[in-house]
Amino acid sequence: MKSIADEISLLITTYNNPDFLDIVLKSVLAQRVLPKEVIIADDGSGQPTRELIQQYQKIFPVPLLHAWIPDEGFRASKVRNVAVAQSSGQYIVMIDGDIVIGPTFIQDHRVLMKPGRFVTGSRARLMQKATEALCRKKTHHVSFWNPGLRRRLVLLRIPFMHYLIKGNSGTKRARSCNLGVWRTDYIKVNGFEEKFIGWGFEDWEFVQRLYNIGLVRKNAKMLAPAIHLFHPYKNASRAEINEQMLHHTRESKKTRAEIGIDQYL
Q: Is the pTM of the predicted complex or chain greater than 0.85?
C-alpha cells in the first residue's frame, strides 16, 4: 500500500476538458506518495467531466472531491477559493488541469514544504501533435526523449543538485500551475482575488500578496517535475485590466483579497 502525505491537499483546476483531466488523474494515481485528498476545482464543466470524476471516485485510493461552480466565464480565482475552503490538508499543492505530474511530484512537494515560504515549480511543454497522440493513447506516460517535448531539462529530477542551487527566487513572476502554499497562509491573504475575471495575472497577483506578507519563494528546480499539455491560448481580452490590478497590489503592498475565500469559510 502506498504511503499518504496527510498534510497535503492536491487541487486541480479544470474546465470542459475531460481528455486532459483523465490523463492528469492517471498521473496522480501513479504517485509514489499520494496526497491526503484530491480536489477538482471545476470552473463550470458539463456532464462529461462530471461523469469522468464519478468514475475515478470509485477507484481512487484517497478522497476525490468535486468543487463545481456554474459556467459564467473564466473564474479560476473563485473556484480555487471554493475548493480550498473544502480542503482538510494543512498544505495546498495546486496544478492546472493541463499539467501531468511526475511520479515523485507529491513526494517532492512534501520535502519542500517549510514554514515561512511557498514553493513554485516549472513544467516542460508537450507540443500539439504529441499532446494529441497522448490523448489518443489515454496515457500519462511521457519520457525525457518523447518527440514534441520542449524544455525537457525541466524533467530532470536530481535531488542533490536541488540543494546546490541558490535557494530563493526573489520576487519573480510565478504561476499557479505548480504551486505549494500553507493553507494558513492562503487564508491569511484571503485566497485568490475574485475581482479577476477572465484569463490573466490572477495567479501572479496572488503570489505578489504572499510576498507582501513576508513569505519567501522557493523554486523546486530539479524536483517535482511536470509537463504542460498543449492547448490554444485562452481569451485574454481582460488581460490589460487584470495587469493593472496586479500593479496596484504590488505598489500598494496589498496583502488581502477584497473578495476572497473568507466568504466560504
A: yes
